[in-house]
Amino acid sequence: FTQITDKVQRGNYAQLNDKDVVHFEQLLGKNHVLTEDLDAYNICFQKRIRGNSKLVLKPGSTDEVAAILRHCNERRLAVVPQGGNTGLVGGSVPICDEIVLSLQRLNKVLSVDEVTGIAIVEAGCILENFDQRARDVGLTVPLDLGAKASCHIGGNVSTNAGGVRVVRYGNLHGSVLGVEAVLASGQVLDLMSNFKKDNTGYHMKHLFIGSEGTLGVVTKLSMLCPHASKSVNVAFIGLNSFDDVLKTFVSAKRNLGEILSSCELIDHLAFDNALDHYKFLKSPITGYPFYMLIETSGSNATHDEEKINQFISDGMERGEIIDGTVTGDPGKVQEIWKIREMVPLALIEKSFCFKYDISLPLRDFYGIVDVLRERCGPLATIVCGYGHLGDSNLHLNVSCEHFNEDIYKRVEPFVYEYTSQLKGSISAEHGIGFLKKNYLHYSKNPIAIDWMRDMKKMFDPNAILNPYKMLN
Ligand code: FAD
Ligand code: 2HG
Ligand code: ZN
User: Ligand 2 test: best mutation among 45, 47, 86, 88, most atoms within 8 Å of CB?
Assistant: First the structure.
């Protein structure tokens, strides 16, 4: 663990006592109040942060969430809402001794309407399970990410997660039609809606999309699910330069247009590390400086195949694409996606990894990777870039054997200054959480930050919800 949490001064919160624990046991039943073996809830996914919570609560209904928060607010006990704990910015774990409010038991898909495409789901439902239920009636959840087997849909909404389909379906501000959230006071805010169009005053649901558990606990939501595509094809291609990558992206938008559903980039260092670390990964091509994964999803296999094959052969003729493969075979499509999905895990598992998740103008998308490689020199084992090229979202990773203060000083705040100069975003899709809270000002001006603080005070005057995160 990087011992950054040691430096945090505990807020002026009450200390949990036996009476609180008994109160929660009476409310939820003893089985849903945990006081032992709490590591899985205290430690973040990257194992960078370890909190010291003594209590995990697992409510089974919105009313129970409301009753928990009411008690915590009256007693001034701090709370951290937790979904699948796959977040990458330390937002989902306690920093001191906050009570962990786990949404695990609120995991039901309440309805999926195949006519309207609207699904109602509880916040703790695992993304993959939700998607499976949608697929049972020919629909799909318009969100897909590598952590799908453990992240919760409520966690996704609370972080405004992006993932690999934003280029097609946009972000969650468009797909989430409504939310139910419990405020710190215990009030239940019902912002559920079954319609795309609802201009009745302020669009308050958006406050809960991306507010990372600082304004309320999301308990339920409605989501507009598109039809699952009948024909899915994936191209995995090798390219010689970033200039060719950009040309290929422009060509994909122009020529694949309405069927383009993903456009991902992996540089050779990220790619080689994944293949080296996970021997089960199989790549149809190797040996290129850059790789792109381009996916199409449409409704006519013959038409879609023709289009993607034409796109590849045109790119090869122009010398922009050097080699590649196209497949519509579901098993092979999965195999190729696996390479992309395992890239971040290979970096996390192998060594310590500083992670940056930034939005940059496309022309400047990759330059920072080279600059940073130079800055770190041999101190870093890998400085690589990959991510959601189609959304201008770069994942910049710097690996070293252990947390290294020297590298840390070379990369932070440099990465944020660099991003800010290009008017990018210092957090494209992962959020601010604990790890990035000191850098918010690189992407938000002081007046905007003051308004955020005022909003926080209005929703949560005792600041019990997810303290030490997002805002200082
Ligand atoms: P958690 O990690 O448990 O919580 C995240 C934040 O949301 C915390 O601040 C927490 O307090 C809050 N929260 C959780 N549930 C609720 C709730 N019900 N109400 C209020 N607040 C809540 N992210 C992307 O955006 N795109 C990707 O492509 C992507 N790929 C990933 C791949 C891997 C391998 C991993 C490990 C992570 C990836 N992530 C990605 C990051 C992470 O999966 C997402 O941020 C995800 O949305 C977190 O969901 P979760 O349920 O795990 O939330
Ligand atoms: C991805 O796109 C995730 O794979 C994780 O957002 C990125 O770990 C990272 O840097
Ligand atoms: Zn990502």
Answer: 88
